[in-house]
Design a protein that fits this description.
single chain, UPF0145 protein AAV99_02840, UPF0145_dom_sf, 35% helix, 105 residues, UPF0145_YbjQ-like
Length: 105
Amino acid sequence: MPVTTTPTFEGQPIKEYLGIVTGEVIVGANVFRDMFANIRDIVGGRSGSYERILADARNQAIEELQAESASRGGNGVVGVDLDYEVIGKTGSMLMVSASGTAVKI
């Protein structure tokens, strides 16, 4: 199912707007992963473990968005916005949310 941050799909007219759809994923931090990420921060370099977790969480949120669109009879999502928030008392959790408008194209 096509998903875009733009308000339309180029060359494909939107036949019907089906409302706002969302997908949210919350992931927890792992103590060992945090420790190794901190070491990387000290010596330099990117934290591949965190990058993979963020990519997985983003993909899952988009998949939930697509599933909700499909459940409403949609075959696309326009105007998608991705947000990242640190949550929890100690900031030990990360929420990735995706929202957009389900459409029939």
